Each structure stands twice: as structure tokens, then as C-alpha cells.
Amino acid sequence: MQQARICVVGSINMDLVVSTPALPVPGQTVLGGPFRTFAGGKGANQAVAAARAGGHVAMVGCVGADSYGMILRKELVDNCVDVSNVHIREGVATGVALIAVDPTGQNTIVVAPGANATLTLADIEQAASIISTSAVLVLQLEVPLPIVVRAAELARKSGTRVVFNPAPAMPLDNTLLKLADVLVPNETEAATLTGLQPDGWTVAEHMAHALRSRGPQSVVITLGERGAVFTDGENSIRQAPFAVRAVDATAAGDAFIGGLAVALAENCSLSEAVRWGAAAGALAATQHGAQPSLPDRALIEKLLSCSVRICYP
Ligand code: ADP
Predict the structure, then answer these.
(1) What per-residue confidence (pLDDT) applies to 151?
(2) Which secondary structure element, helix H or strand E, spans residue 207, and what is its range?
């Protein structure tokens, strides 16, 4: 079978993570514990998630001409992601996220977008044929907004389905929302977009309908360990979570997007695609870290096949 083709336009970051006994307050220096680096960036995470879930994935993005950039590009190649549209920018640092984590799991994060901010409209035009021949385009908000909008426009013009993850959370007008076939916020992002306070299933359903009325064909709100809710019309449907032994939900959302995108690219219905996303997200929560925790297709299919389908009415 020809693998379903997916294009991801988005960020590529190195996560620089230090554990610390306490998060520093302004002006304070604290002595931290071990330091580790992890491949990250929502774009790259979602590209790897889709590739591991069985998609044929091309990434459009930018890294700097530095060691992090080379490592991150190789990480994508090692995960079978096509990097012919991952540009290496001279004189710009690769994007980084500076992350401090305390013993309770609380963190502070500063992202320096670096090369991610240099993605241009010309880069998107150069990738136009990849976008238009893909079954699904996956977008987030860690590269400049006009770039995201242009990529979505090109996709819509050619019938490529747009899966839009509006992360990190920020208010948006309807321009981009109208270009989305499937809008996939988590609860926090949905709250930012709707102004509603998260408070369980009923509010999540209200959020999904409120967001759908702003333009996207369908809306899927991920609700962490509670699963997800989605709508593509009058009704909203609850997707129960897959029961797993969760240890770290980092990148569960990225795994969800990857699984959902692959299923949609393979012409599954929205409810099947949400199930794929939920299985991938649950599996990601069973492992520590971001990219290392993203599950492969065999694991996702195993979880899908051994779990009873539970959709709340
Ligand atoms: P994000 O990482 O963007 O905040 P979520 O935390 O909502 O995303 O997780 C995405 C999806 O992963 C959820 O909709 C759910 O299906 C699945 N998931 C996350 N955490 C768990 C968990 N502890 N148990 C089962 N499934 C989970």
C-alpha cells in the first residue's frame, strides 16, 4: 500500500531541560540537577508522530547552521521524515526551549524561536507542490502566523485537508479557523479561543460548538486523561480515553495529532481518526519525554484492536 502523504509546516526546537529543587524567582540563581537535551518543537514532534504512526511525512521548517540544527535535522531523517524543505539558515540560532522542572513536575519554559521565525512565504511557495499533493497538511502556531495562513490557503485550494493545532494558546480571528478542516486544540487552547473556563465534558462540548461556528469543518478538543470530544455537525461525541498506565503526558497532544492525521490521510472517518489519535496519545503518556515517547504504528494498532470501543452518546 502507498503510504498516506502528510506535510507538516512548523517548528523544530532543541529542548534544554534542567531539573531543579525549586524554580527560581526573578533575580534568584538556583543550583540545578542533571541537564539533558531533547529533540522537540511542536512541528517536528507532530511530524515524527505521524511518521511513526505510518504516514509518509514531509516537514517544512527552518533550523540554524549550528550543531543543534544538524542534530535535529538528522533526528527527522532517522524517523523517515523528508527534510528536503527543512532549511538551514546561516547566522541564526536553531530554536530552543529552556525548560526548568521542579520535583513536583512544575516547570517554567522560555522559547527562543530562532530559525523558526525565519520561515518565509517564499519557503511555503517552494513547498507548494508537496502541500498540494499531500492528503493532509498539519499546522501549529510556533512559526509566523502569515506563513501558517498561506500554507493553509494552498492546501485548501488543492483539496489537501488541513489539521490545525492552535498551539501555543493565543487568541485568533476567524481567518485561520475558517481554513481548518479539523481544528484540534487542547482544553487550555480551546479556553483561550472561546473565553470559556474549562469545567468538564459539558463545557468542552460548548467549546467545540462555539469553535465550529467560527469556521472549521470539525473540531476535536483533547482533554488529557479524560479523552476527547469532537463535533462535525449538530452533535458532539465523546471519545473515552484508552486505559493505560500513564507516567508523563508530555507530547500526548503531538502523538494525538500524528495518529489523527495518518488516519484521516488513509480516508478514515473523523470518529475513527479521533480513536487513532486517542490511542497514540494514551501510548505517549506511558513513556517519559517528547519524541522518545511517540508510539509506532504496531503499538497503536495493538491498543486499538484490544480495546473495546466506548463512545459516550
Ligand atoms: P496536550 O499534550 O496537547 O495537552 P492532551 O493532554 O489533551 O494534549 O492529550 C492528548 C490526548 O492524549 C488526549 O485527548 C487523550 O486521548 C490522550 N491522553 C493524554 N493523557 C492520557 C492518559 N493519562 N490516559 C489516556 N489517554 C491520555
Answers:
(1) 98
(2) helix 200-212
Catalytic residue among 66, 123, 181, 254: 254
Taking 70 as the pLDDT cut, the residues of the chain under it are 1-4, 307-313
Distance from the alpha carbon of residue 215 to the mean position of ligand 1, in angstroms: 25
Euclidean distance between CA atoms 144 and 160, whole angstroms = 21
Which one-letter amino acid corresponds to residue 217?
Q
Inter-helix orientation angle 187-194/200-212, to 10° = 60
How far does residue 87's CA lie from ligand 1's centre (Å)? 31
Pick from 256, 260, 300 the residue to mutate for probing ligand 1's pocket: most ligand atoms within 8 Å of its CB. Answer: 256
> Has 254 been annotated as catalytic?
yes
C-alpha 12 – ligand 1 centre gap (Å) = 22
Entry pTM: 0.95
Q: Tell me, what's the pLDDT at 289? A: 81
pLDDT digits (tens, 9 = 90+) for 75-120: 999 999 999 999 999 999 999 999 998 988 788 889 999 999 999 9
CA atoms within 13 Å, Cβ hemisphere of 11: 28
- Provide the grid cell at 198: 474549562
